[in-house]
Amino acid sequence: MVDSMRMKQLLSESLPLPLRQWLWERKVAAGNRRIRELGGELSTRIHDAAQKDIAIGKGIQTKADWESFRDVRCEALRRSLNLSEERVAPPRALVTGTLKLNACHIENMVFHGHMDIPVTANMYRPVGITTNTPAIVLCHSHHDSKSEEELQCMGMTWARQGCTVLIMDLLGHGERRQHPFTSQKDFAGAFRVDRQDYYFRSVLDMQLQLVGESLMGWMVQDVRRGIDVLCADPHIDCDRIIVVGSVAGGGDLAAVVGAVDMRVSNVVAFNFGHLSMGDWESTRNLPDTARLRFWPWVILASLAPRRLIYGREFAWNHVDGAWNYLKNVYALYGQSEALRSVSGSGHVSSNGPLDSHCMNIGPLHRAQLYPIFQDWFGIPVPEHEETTCIEKHKLICLTEEARREFSSRRVHEVVQQLSRQYLTVARKGRATQEPAMLAIQLQQDLVPVLGPMQPFTSCRVHSMYQGVSRSEYVKLEVEKNIFVRLQILRPSHSDIPQLPVVIGVAQEGNRRLKNERQSLIRRLLKQRIVVCLTELRGTGDGRQGEIYRGRISPSAGIAATSLMLGESLLISRVRDLRTVIAYLKHRDEIDDSRVGIWGAALPASNFSDDDLAVPFNADSYPERGEPLGGVVSLLATLFEPQIQAVYVQGGLASYETLLDKPYIYQPVDSLIRGLLTVADIPDIAAALAPRPLRMEGLVDGSNRQLDTPQIESMYHRARLAYGRAGKSESQCSINIEKTSGLEISRWFANFLCP
Q1: What is the pLDDT of residue 12?
Q2: Is residue 603 within 8 Å of residue 703, measured between CB atoms?
Q3: What pLDDT digit, counting tens, does each position of 667-702 carry?
Q4: Would you tell me how many other CB atoms lie within 10 Å of the CB of residue 724?
């Protein structure tokens, strides 16, 4: 007998390919409907804020007014990226090998980058030049690392023309990759080896976010350390330092470096300047962009009156809002000649001979750069380019000597150490607090990191209708065009005028939660407890898997869009939950002094003995956890003193566990930017004492269920806090196994139905 899955497969294969593709796109769109709706509203807000700021910029008539406008935004950019203005001694550069070519000499070098993570770089030096040379720093694209052929071509060609060229591996790329997948031999299944550096950028930024840092910020710091190396070289003309940013992310980095480092005399920025909404690739859209108004065009314009080349990879007709903005700013300085543009041909969506796709900067673009560099810096236009490339293994910098001298710590280990340092200081400040004051102190500590935590006061009931069997459906508009959906289930045959309520929350939404936790819901109702199932903003699509919750899913992009507005998406959802609590207080049938919260994670956990080192886009991928329900429940309880009991089922035990490995199996929209500078989930649990707390089946950052020793190690402070409050173990129950719906319903009833 053919099973149902096989029948579906046979039916699918019988359909024409275009129809199958259309059906697949419809399925993906339907599975991401709620989160896409939220993304549309957040994007509208960003667009409106950008238009207002553009209008302000158009009204600027003097250089002084522009510089006042610019300085506020550049300082905000530095703060957001956590960039220090403190100058440090130039890092020592260890040359690990030299290639002597006719056109130039290439030094393979290693130097200390940001946080002492070693930077690998190739320095292309001219031969036979006795005067100080211009220096060009090339920021490569996300397509490849420092040894890519176009980069080699530019390095050798400009060195032959009398320049010193520095090409670094950006953090996470090439010799600085943070994952183990360097060849097909490193994993049993099929995967794209050449894209893993790029894909793993998502993991790096997730880990950096937890301590309030960013991948862009750390890349900027590394490039600035490279400029330190150049400025310490007596053969470099420090008045002619040029930063060139390639297509596909290099231009973004070059522009930000130029904006924050006045040593840069010229920036070439490809494909940067337009407003990009949230994307999983975090260097495309910086956190706080819309809140603090350092828009891409403002970052570029801040370079004025220094020289700027505005690059476009494909055809461009100079009809461009960012270009016009730049021209107006440069005109204020009377320096219109300091602004130039280069562009390619064709279109990104085509692949014909006239479409100027490139890995970094293509020949068509380079041909336009050469005469500009001659005009500005006296760099001769080359008669021909150096197109004979060096074998990549000859450009490797990390020799055994370098490995002995430089730290081998990976980014996740460095961030883990940072988080422990932050948390040690923060916990020490709270250690002397009495149980009654611990929650208040933690709230005060968290607010600078979390931002506003109040419920949304503009909330209104958008719609309400009765369902079957004493159920009610309520749609709340918590903010303009942002909705929270409730399904309120009431016990039958109750003659009590006001009943306790348990609010249930899960990422997958009310239908999935109701279907998969029927036993608990049914038994809560038998205990005469109202159940309010809650879908917070953008949740409720009910889908799991990579295309719905992974790296390239809409939820990843919309989490980044929310950060552009200055708020972690999970914090917005905590505020949604607090708004729901405020709404329920005003319902006649609810006793607002007897409220419990239940945060559920529905996905299965990964097996503890599985090898979870899996490349992106592998055919089989580990299961991702869903921490939303547990984390929002704990945070809402911390800020809502009337919550009487909280139950977390299958949630994340600790954000610090996301730093244990160079991979993560939790969704990016579950992160709270900067949380680990102040507290972790166990700290929040401890601050809830003496209120009843129950947590079961907790998992780590790899979505592996933790064992008893691990749980006890993480939650010993919570145990101590409840002990100091004089509460029994039943009021702080943290177990590795999930218990039955009957037992959980009795636990809630014990505290809500005295």
Answers
A1: 63
A2: yes
A3: 999 999 999 999 999 999 999 999 999 999 999 999
A4: 14
Check: CB of residue 711 under 8 Å from CB of residue 752: no
Residues near 234 by beta carbon (within 8 Å), at least 6 away in sequence: 132
Two tokens, residue 251: 């231009």
Spell out the residues 6+ positions from residue 187 whose beta carbon is closer than 8 angstroms to its own.
181, 614, 615, 618
Look up residue 585 and give its two tokens: 């207080």
Residue 30 pLDDT class (50, 70, 90 cuts)? low
184-188, 205-209, 349-353, 543-547: which has the highest mean pLDDT?
205-209
CA distance readout (Å), 625 to 570, 610, 713: 15, 15, 21
Task: Supply 596's token pair.
Answer: 């419990």
Residues in a beta bridge with 590 = 499
- Residue burial 194-229, b: 16+ Cβ < 10 Å; e: rest: ebbbbbbbbbbbbbbbbbbbbbbbbbbbbbbbbbbb
CA angle (264, 269, 274) in 5-degree steps = 125
- Picking from 517, 568, 512, the residue whose alpha carbon sits closest to that of residue 540 is 512
Give 440's Cβ-side CA count (13 Å radius): 5
To 10 degrees, the CA torsion angle through 95, 100, 106, 108? -30
b/e per residue 304-341 (b: at least 16 CB within 10 A): bebbbbbbbbbebeeebebbebbbbbbebeeeeebbbb
Query: Kind and range of the H or E element at 219?
Result: helix 215-231
Each residue's pLDDT tens digit, 110-168? 999 999 999 999 999 999 888 999 999 999 999 999 999 999 999 999 999 999 999 99
Beta-sheet pairing, 693-696 with 643-649: parallel
Distance CA 80, CA 286 (A): 9
Regarding beta strands 482-489 and 460-466, do their DSSP bridges make them parallel or antiparallel, or are they unpaired?
unpaired
Separation in Å, CA 649 to CA 245, 699, 731: 47, 10, 16
Is 267 within 8 Å of 296 (Cβ atoms)? no
- What is the secondary structure of 326-340 as a DSSP string? HHHHHHHTT-GGGEE
- The token pair at 214 is 């960013």
Residue type, 371: P
